[in-house]
Write a structure and sequence with these properties.
Helix 6 packs across helix 7, helix 7 runs parallel beside helix 12 and helix 9 packs across helix 15. The chain is α/β, with parallel strands linked by helices. The strands form 8 sheets. Strands 7, 8, 9, 10, 12, 14, 15 and 18 form an 8-stranded mixed sheet that branches. Strands 1-2-25-6 form a 4-stranded antiparallel sheet. It folds into 2 domains: about 160 residues, no CATH class; about 400 residues, Rossmann fold (3-Layer(aba) Sandwich), CATH 3.40.50.200. The two termini are about 30 Å apart. It comes from Aphanomyces invadans. One of its GO terms (molecular function) is serine-type endopeptidase activity.
Length: about 650
């Protein structure tokens, strides 16, 4: 049955390590006087605290202290001190197969602000001339946005025909994480609601401060303010969770602690049914830093979906080239280097979440100015936006079956990059898209314009929150992992989405970046620039509300709404809708079975182990040892020889994803 989600205990039971694993590890650590050990069944993370001397003995290594170096490019760089192993780690051979990787001393690392605060941009693009799918010449709210004044909650509700939330279910909830030094203020949120929300009461917030946030008091940043203001603008009467999680990926100080955040959510008995994440990293960079860490995030996403949580992720703001760290050291005039190959982003490339791209508005004028219409097009800096929507194909994940038909149709089109430019067999993204240009955001007491897939993702997520309201009020479960359903809806009932057929992701973020000759173009149906399209909310919400009715002979009644398109077809027959939803449910059941299988799959080492202790090899050897020193990029940390061997200094050891 669709929506029969798992409890926390049921999901954790699927991923538990071997029964002998934890006792064996505890005995080994106890031999070295390490007793402060805690285990999370939600993520299989074993956290250990001990002195430098004890852990040096346990791992047969040496641990040195490093201090952060002042960064001239970051005025708010926070001094940090970290401990790193200077030699490879060694563990007992009898637990080697039970350990995925080890992260030594994964304390928070200073990080510069990554959210982009953009100046006012003109979103009026009169040079694009294609017949619009809907006329908006008499709509004052939309005309204001077209004139460059910036998008507001009223515009989004008008454009997507989203009703105001009037009957919020008290068990419903949504959430957003904020990484690095991102912060928001109650004052800004209050001013935003007073200015744009037409008398709506302030939302109910539940904040989780994972670590000290003293450095952010009284200061708001663009990313956190954007996420919170717009997810609550669309679903203001739903309880919203906010995780403030500083620190970084323990293997890369420039990237987010996604695994650590997922642990916070999964340990909740009742997590929010919808979460939106507005952060992305270069896929190849993340997997090079630690593939084991990146891969360990996937089963956590699977568990969230199995527990009824829908996860939405921004597809990135850097177009087809992506945001590789090496790429952004390259001269912007070096087009050959910038456009050499497609740069997929992570974790939006994971098949276990819903990737959300961004659109903007295009003005089209009829003969002699007789009529004015608007199109929704791929968001691009080439057309005046500060960002270009990310999209493409993963180099690390195979394409999931739920999107096979849609992507194959796209690959049959003629306007594709060369075969050596991208991985045509990879997981394709984004899955969907929504408006993401020039949002009016209240920031430190003033209104500013912010753009990005980090705008479209929380808005799309909040729309699903509204659908969950409908389902919960009808006694039905929340939607959970959505992708198989979304692709089948588009295939059999395309009016559920507004098809985006104009635009490309050839440009990068901001002005001055080269426009690549090869990129992904918007096409009819799914494409790697706009996904399945933007939501035709009246149609999509009714189909998602009544998904279970496919099990009945008559199928579901056709949504009694007018689609936002010139297509005059009455849509598929009642019989075809019955077929659609039956297949949808079967697909979701199969998807859940695959999720469970993937979670409990164990990779065994086949080599013979002759010694009692073994050095970590392969992915397990990715353990952070010491800060890298690159000629082109001065080391962030330098060694402090004075106190590196202090036996009283505590070290946190994290062993993640103990294999079953």
């Amino acid at each position: 049955m669709y929506g029969r989600h798992l409890t926390a205990d049921e999901a954790d039971a699927l991923t538990s390590p071997r029964k002998v694993a934890l006792p064996s590890i505890r005995r080994w650590l106890s031999q070295h006087d390490v007793e402060d050990v805690s285990f999370s069944p939600a993520t299989n993370r074993l956290k250990v605290r001990g002195s430098v001397r004890a852990l040096e003995a346990a791992f047969r290594t040496e641990i040195h202290a490093y201090d952060s170096v002042e960064r001239s490019d970051n005025a708010r760089w926070v001094h940090q001190r970290i401990l790193r192993a200077s030699q490879p780690l060694t563990i007992p051979s009898n637990i080697l197969d039970d350990v995925s990787y080890i992260s030594l001393n994964s304390h928070p690392i200073g990080r510069s602000l990554t959210a982009q605060r953009h100046g006012e941009q003109n979103s009026d693009m009169s040079n694009i001339g294609k017949k619009s799918k809907r006329s908006t010449s008499s709509n004052g709210v939309i005309d204001t946005v077209r004139a460059g004044a910036g998008a507001t909650p009223a515009f989004l509700r008008e454009w997507y025909r989203i009703p105001k939330q009037t009957n919020a279910n008290e068990t419903n909830a949504q959430g957003i994480p904020e990484f690095y030094d991102e912060a928001w203020t109650d004052k800004d949120l209050s001013m935003f609601f007073n200015t744009f929300m037409d008398g709506e009461a302030m939302p109910t917030l539940v904040t989780h401060h994972v670590a000290s946030r003293d450095d952010t008091k009284g200061r708001a940043t663009g990313e956190a303010s954007l996420d919170l203001q717009y997810i609550t603008a669309i679903a203001p009467r739903t309880t919203t969770y906010v995780w403030s999680q500083p620190g970084s990926n323990p293997f890369s100080e420039s990237d987010e602690p996604f695994v650590e955040w997922a642990e916070e959510v999964l340990t909740m008995k009742k997590p929010p049914f919808v979460v939106s994440l507005s952060y992305s990293d270069d896929e190849d960079h993340i997997f090079a830093a630690s593939e084991a860490y990146a891969r360990s995030f996937d089963p956590l996403l699977m568990k969230l979906g199995a527990r009824g949580v829908s996860v939405f992720m921004a597809s990135g703001d850097d177009g087809v080239a992506g945001q590789s760290p090496d790429l952004h050291k390259t001269d912007a005039h070096d087009k050959a280097a910038w456009c050499k190959e497609h740069g997929p982003q992570w974790p939006t490339s994971s098949p276990y979440l819903t990737s959300v791209g961004a659109t903007m508005l295009s003005k089209s004028t009829g003969p002699s100015g007789f009529f004015d219409t608007l199109d929704e097009v791929v968001c691009s800096s080439q057309l005046g936006s500060p960002i270009t929507s990310g999209g493409g194909f993963s180099n690390r994940y195979d394409r999931p079956k739920y999107q096979e038909a849609a992507v194959q149709s796209f690959l049959a089109t003629k306007n594709l990059p060369p075969s050596d430019f991208f991985n045509a067999s990879g997981r394709a993204y984004p899955d969907v898209t929504a408006f993401g240009n020039n949002y009016q955001v209240m920031l430190n007491g003033a209104t500013g314009l912010v753009s990005g897939t980090s705008a479209s993702s929380p808005v799309f997520a909040a729309m699903i929150t509204l659908v969950n309201d409908l389902r919960l009020n009808a006694g039905k479960p929340p939607l959970g992992f959505l992708n198989p359903t979304l692709y089948l809806l588009q295939q059999r009932y395309p009016l559920a989405f507004n098809d985006i057929t104009i635009g490309t992701n050839a440009a990068g973020m901001g002005s001055g970046k080269p426009v690549c000759d090869f990129a992904f173009h918007a096409e009819s149906g799914w494409d790697a620039a706009s996904g399945l399209g933007s939501p035709n909310f009246p149609v999509l919400s009714q189909l998602l509300l009544n998904v279970e009715d496919a099990l009945k002979d008559g199928g579901v009644p056709m949504p009694s709404v007018v689609a936002q398109t010139d297509n005059t077809s009455d849509g598929p027959s009642r019989a075809s809708m019955n077929s659609l939803l039956t297949v949808s449910i079967a697909s979701l059941v199969a998807s859940l079975v695959l999720v469970c299988g993937a979670i409990v799959y164990v990779k065994r080492h086949t080599r013979s182990i002759k010694s009692k202790y073994c050095e970590l090899e392969g992915d397990k050897a990715d353990t952070p040892k010491y800060p890298s020193h690159e000629k082109k990029d001065p080391a962030i940390f330098t060694i402090d020889h004075d106190d590196g061997d202090d036996e009283e200094v505590d070290v946190e050891l994290t062993e993640v994803k103990l294999d079953r």
